[in-house]
Amino acid sequence: DAGVTQSPTHLIKTRGQQVTLRCSPISGHKSVSWYQQVLGQGPQFIFQYYEKEERGRGNFPDRFSARQFPNYSSELNVNALLLGDSALYLCASSFFGPTGTEAFFGQGTRLTVV
Amino acid sequence: DQQVKQNSPSLSVQEGRISILNCDYTNSMFDYFLWYKKYPAEGPTFLISISSIKDKNEDGRFTVFLNKSAKHLSLHIVPSQPGDSAVYFCAASATTSGTYKYIFGTGTRLKVLA
Q: B-chain residues within 8 Å CB-CB of A104?
């Protein structure tokens, strides 16, 4: 069975550009969450979507946006990239929201902003 | 404001001995806790979870203990194996908050020595 898949695995962008990261959840999972992990820190929550609706948003600027599609896949968009956006972006899927259930992570997308 | 803290950035243990990883939290609304293991260049892998209605949960070599009064949880690995060498993150969730997110600690790097 396929786990959570993310694309691309690595990405290099220039300051000011826009980026779109993609995530396909585990089959049957209706919830997708996005996290940002910078070196030396734990993952920081960005968004959670369940049944195509935003259910939670972390403390990130409006440059960050996301959406979930009818097939439960998801995209994370970041506009006007800053050097500080360089990080590992993780997607996690779960059958429901995190309420009492574990989330399964993809391998992440390593974004480098130069 | 770090709501979930892992105060030991690293831990070294001999193969076959017990590894004990600790985690403290400050938010009394947290009621679901998880441990994840992360290898370099991979996403976090779910290990074990515990609900606040329990004080212990076991899965094979892994046991998580929860002390609600002290706002402390720990992960015991017995016996430790070289393949357990990784970064371990604890995470917490407030399932009744309506915001579906995990708060992660900063991680503890475990090294199991052969």
A: 46
A95 interfaces chain B, CB cutoff of 8 Å: no
Task: Determine contact: B32 vs chain A, CB below 8 A.
Answer: yes
Tell me the CA distances in angstroms from B48 to A12, A25, A32, A79, B101, one per residue in order.
34, 20, 20, 36, 17
CB contact under 8 A, B106 and A102: no
Q: Which residues of B touch A48 (CB under 8 A)?
A: 99-101
Q: Is A52 left (phi over 0), alpha (psi -120 to 50) or beta?
A: left
Query: Would you say A9 and A110 are in contact if contact means Cβ atoms under 8 Å apart?
Result: yes
User: What digits encode the pLDDT tens for the residues A10-45?
Assistant: 999 999 999 999 999 999 898 899 999 998 899 999
Segments of A51-86 assigned E as strands: 53-57, 64-68, 74-78
The tens digit of pLDDT for each residue in A99-108 reads 557 889 999 9
Q: Do A100 and B41 lie within an 8 Å CB cutoff?
A: no
For A87, other C-beta atoms within 10 Å of its C-beta total: 20
